[in-house]
Amino acid sequence: MRIRAPRGDTGGVSFEGPFDEGMKVCLGSRVGMRVLLEIAAYQAADADSLYAGARKVPWGDFLSAKSTFAVSATVRDNAALRHSGFVALKVKDAIADTLRDRLGVRPDVAPDDPDVSVVLHLRGNDVRLYLDMAGDPLHRRGYRVAMTEAPLKETLAAAVLALGGVAHDVPFLDPMTGSGTLAIEHALGARNIAPGLNRRFGFERWPDQTRAAAWKALKDAARAAILPAAPAPIFARDSSQPAMDAARRNAREAAVANDIRFELADARSLSVPPGIPAGNIVTNPPYGERLRAGPGPDPEDRALEALYRDLARAIGRLSGWQLVVLSGNPLFTRAMGRKAEVSHRLWNGPLEVRLLRWRP
Ligand SMILES: C[S@@+](CC[C@H](N)C(=O)[O-])C[C@H]1O[C@@H](n2cnc3c(N)ncnc32)[C@H](O)[C@@H]1O
Fold it and tell me: What b/e sequence results for 70-84 when a residue is b if at least 16 CB atoms lie within 10 Å of its CB, and e otherwise?
């Protein structure tokens, strides 16, 4: 799927197009987090102008008397409006007052599970109001039923695969798979399964359902485009049995369990079955993010360094495999003994991490 004329922005990408284009992005984007439909843009220097601008929006087009809603705001560089909670409250009042005038009722606010989620960005005096088409963020694909320690967000795993240039038609191996996110995201991509096929989106709860048939047609087309099997083997391994169990359950939920070979194994003695051609090793090793108790050599660092060294040695014994690693620990590069060819800065929640790639 391609969107027309996308423009990169801080923290996002903007594009113009019909409503269906937004539905397509909800269904097919592997790396996006939210899809926001812009409904108003105006200037506000203070609370009164913020409220007055929001009163001009035809909220009755987006909410019915029965809809529940919520407003969330982010605020930057406005001298008078500094608190996102206050800004959200002002706009919530404007929405409720507008609907009361038009429909004679005040709709209910439902902060945790609204039918319509309104998002406001205030930058200086620029106000932009959006409806959140996705509702729950896009990383909630609906397949994560079992957790392990420190699972990657599905969208971050998909970004690692895309930025790492991980091809679908060669073997894939994650020797430290945890809950299986990288292997599952790779399998979804390899089988051309749209990541949003098994969940509901915010716009499905909006009162205006004139595009419902188009939405169904998009999903039917996405289902018809699924390949019956992944074109190359996918291995997901871990030394922990609970992690293996979790990965298998998640893969079953994502309908890709038959595409992945799950194997309990220690990454330090990494090997590949005979007859498997070279492909990509993609992994997110443990990186010891816990806080240090005090100065001096950290025993956890020493253990990690030894693990990385053993892993680097084992990978060195394979020939022709590309290595893609998401790590927050510089010791991994040291253990590899050569500089990564690609190094992207990414965020794993609050942690800065690096996507590193070594060609064979
Ligand atoms: C940061 S977690 C991976 C998280 C995973 N990417 C996910 O999304 O759930 C690291 C994993 O490495 C595994 N691990 C640690 N040492 C290992 C070893 N020597 N061999 C295989 N797996 C190991 C742990 O059991 C853990 O599941």
Answer: bbbbebeebeebeee
